[in-house]
Structure formats: C-alpha cells, structure tokens
Amino acid sequence: MIVDPYCLKKLNEERRQRRAVIMLTDLEDGRDRVIRETDPVAGSLGNVIKKAFLTGRSGVAEVEGRSFFLNVYLPSPRLVVIGAVHISEALAPMAKIAGFEMEIIDPRTAFATRERFPDVNVYADWPDGVLQERPLDAYCALAVLSHDPKIDDPALAAALNAGCFYIGALGSRTTHAKRVERLKLLGFNKDQTDSINAPIGLDIGAVGPQEIAVAIIGGIIKSFRSRDNLHKDMN
Questions:
Q1: Three-state SS at 231
Q2: Fewest CB within 10 A of the end CB: N or C in the chain?
C-alpha cells in the first residue's frame, strides 16, 4: 500500500515533535489521514481512536460497516527525576523494567554521579537550564525528590506549563502546602497545583526508599494508562 506523501511528511514531523499520532487508513478506498491525540473525532470512530491512543496498539477496526487500519505512534515515555537521592537509585531499575526512559537532574555534583547511576542519563546542573534544552511534554512524568525548593520549584513550573501526564513531589502535606503557595506566586492556579501528586506515589503505606520507589512507579503507570486529560476534547 502506497502512503500519501503529504501524510507521511506530516507523520514524521509529528513524531519529531514527540506528539502522539495515528495514521488512519480507510481499507476500502486506501485514503490516509494523520490524527493527533487531541484532534476531535466524532462518533464510534472517535471512541476507537481514543482507545488506540491509550493502549498504543495498532490494528484493524470495523466501524459502522467500514474497515480501518490504525497505525499508532506514541512517543517513548520519559521519567524525569529531580534529585539524585536514595529513592532515585531504587527507582532507576524499576523505570527500566516498566519501559520508561529515565533521567536525573541535580546540581549537587556530589550526588549526581555516573558511579551512583551507571545506567541513567544524569545531568549535574540546575533543572531550568537542562529542561530548556530538553523540554518536557505530555509524554513526560516528573518526580521531584530533592526537598530543596531552589531545585524543585523550577522543575515543577516547567512540568505544569508542559502538561506532563504525571507530576509528583516528595514531602509532607505541610511541605506541599508551602510549595503550593510558592507556585501560586508564580501565577499557577488551583487546578494546576491540584494536579501535583503530593505526597508522591500511590498510597500503599510505603516505608523506605525502595517501597517509596514502588509507589512512585505505580502512580506513574496508573496515570500513563488513564491519560483522560489528553482526550478531553474528543467526542
């Protein structure tokens, strides 16, 4: 089957921009159509497309008497961790097993070392600089673990602006309340600050770095598989 050159060009550009797309082919007339994750598609076809984006599975679908092939392209999910701490060490192998590309940002050079994190991209620099060169997007999860507002707050602001599918921050409810007040001073509203998972991770009664890491990766997977906010404009 020959792909429409215009659709192929559009598809490749969307993938370069780390946007999820589907190449929809009508198997009866061979026409192609590139659909972004936020494009509104009505009716039964819209429901099929929404499910395909959530699962990431390509395949043939029968919709109202017509056959379509949905070729799904999802960006690789990124897990960006702020803070080269003990929880991060436990989280690294879990993220790899779960299929997340993980990277760690921490300007504290004594902590952010290749020796501690041999299989993870580590950036011993401030988050605002790193995230300007490697911007966050809707297929990123952010886990803020440093406990230092000077390090954490710029990353949280970048994640809220980017619409990351998961944003979590370590700390007590009292710590988070102070964090929310600082974010409000930066111009973020209640809906935005309410989207931050704090305390971070699933509520499983976790104790210690390893169990907290399990709670974090579980929360990230749960959010990734229920990304309703990315589909709110679809009918």
A1: helix
A2: N
What value, to the nearest 5°, has the Cα angle with vertex 68 and ends 66 and 70? 160
Q: How far apart are CA 229 and CA 76, in angstroms?
A: 18
Angle at 53 between CA 65 and CA 235, to 5 degrees: 60
Q: Are residues 34 and 125 in the same domain?
A: no
The tokens for 213 are 């890491």
Please report, as a single letter, which amino acid is at residue 51: K
Tokens of 8: 């192929």
Question: Which of the four pLDDT bands, split at 50, 70 and 90, describes residue 8?
Answer: confident
Q: Is residue 234 part of a domain?
A: no
Task: Provide the residue range defining the domain that includes 106.
Answer: 78-228
Q: What is the DSSP secondary structure assignment for residue 197, as one 8-state letter?
A: B
Distance CA 228, CA 235 (A): 12
Task: Look at residue 235 and tell me if it is in a domain.
Answer: no
| pTM check: above 0.70 | yes
